[in-house]
Amino acid sequence: MTNRSTLRLMCVHAHPDDESSKGAGTMARYVREGIEVLVVTCTGGERGDVLNPKMDRPEIQENLPRVRSEEMARAREILGVQQHWLGFTDSGLPDGWLPDSGIDLPQDAFYLVPTEQAAAPLVEVMRSFKPHVVTTYDEEGGYPHPDHVKTHEISVAAFAAAGDPAKYVDRGEPWQPLKLYYNHGFGKARIEALHYAMVDAGLESPYKDWMDAGDWTRDKSERVTTRVECAEYFEIRDAALKAHATQVDPDGFWFAVPRAIQEKAWPTEDYELVESRIDTRLPEDDLFAGLR
User: Hey, what's the signal peptide range on this chain (predicted)?
Assistant: First the structure.
């Protein structure tokens, strides 16, 4: 699958479009530095909605799995990444669902697959692709969507098992990734920086309600260990995100802050190093710190 002389990054995501809204600038940078990048997409997004009103047509909704697969193909071409579907079925997001809410999910939901079983194909892909670095979501899934929570669970389990010859013995030769990161995208520090940059520019901030609410109880900014400079790749990131046309309105929230303001106010994508099998010094500015 790969040229074994290069460094390799695996980014594990729940749905098509997640790869373009979480860490896409980082991936674009590394691809163009000659690093191999593989996106693993756990589900097909079958139970998602059409979130872009410009695409909300019956023929789109009726063929959503196919359309989202086609969108993913365009996004991966723009980013320059490889991509692998794990093949699990989207769990959907019932109103009020939380891990302990007791709200039922469809019987074929990815979230309901036992973690040891669901991790098996990810272990196989890890052993085949042989990543040095893996990124995924934190213990809350980044936000409480059942597929994001399950993606976290299987990523952590696969990272631990991939190098163990006693685990998943039928899933390929053992390979131990060296670093595991969680994505962190909407921390207080970033939101404040973008908000005040918009205000200073005399523009309406899309984060005004967040600032007015002042509820930062879920903020995890202090957990960020690694900030990857990738502002010059935000254009590629945005193009990849727009490729997911059913999910992203090009005139909507994601693009309310002009790119030039983003590049100046917050030119990094941010991560939390949660496990490392090599020595590295924190804070970092590179997911491959200690490996180059």
Answer: none
